[in-house]
Amino acid sequence: MKNSFMVNLPYPKINISEKNPYYAKIILQNYAGMVSEFSAVSQYTYQKIKLFKSYPEISEVLLKISIVEMHHLEVLGKMIIELGDDPGFWIKKKDKYNYWSPKFVDYTNEPKAIIKSDITDELKAIKQYENSIKVIHDENINAILKRIILDEELHIKILTGIYDKYFSKC
Q1: What integer pLDDT is reported at residue 1 of this predicted model?
Q2: What is the dihedral sign for C-alpha 2, 138, 132, 96?
Q3: What 3-state class would DSSP assign to 92?
């Protein structure tokens, strides 16, 4: 998968040697928690549709970022399966399922606020991945999470460029 919204480096191959429900639970947070790839895909899709008439260039950028986020979602989902869990749109707390909610999407309507929110959300995602890396002691999983972080950092640069182009004088 090659595009300018993804860092031009390969993703490490998923190579999980044994099931680990604890690691799966951590990855589920990044997969379908409040700050997650599923939330990002949903939010970028909503925003892309919202802005397609008034800001077609921004709408197209949000679509392309969401496609990369879908790739992240797929990678995380495959890791969850390899770790022995189900990649449903939920997180687990004390063996209870907390389902993903559309309340996790920021439905801001003002274009400037949308881009600011997206930058903030990318920063939150990076922080969450970094926290996951601290508690997961598996080189392969952490290499994959670090690779995803590179894309999230690129998204911040792209979104900052959009913000500067359209809204820095507002």
Answers
A1: 46
A2: positive
A3: strand
Residue numbers in the chain where pLDDT is lower than 50: 1
Among residues 41, 40, 35, the alpha carbon closest in space to that of 127 is found at: 35
CB atoms within 10 A of CB 116: 16
Long-range CB pairs of 134-138 (<8 Å, 24+ gap) are 135/26, 136/23, 136/26, 138/16, 138/20, 138/23
Give the pLDDT confidence score for residue 34 in this predicted structure. 98
Return the amino acid letter for 58: I
Closest by Cα among 97, 80, 86 to 23: 80
Tokens of 31: 């997969």
Residue type, 33: G
pLDDT digits (tens, 9 = 90+) for 68-101: 999 999 999 999 999 999 999 999 998 899 999 9
Assigned architecture for domain 21-167 = Up-down Bundle (1.20)
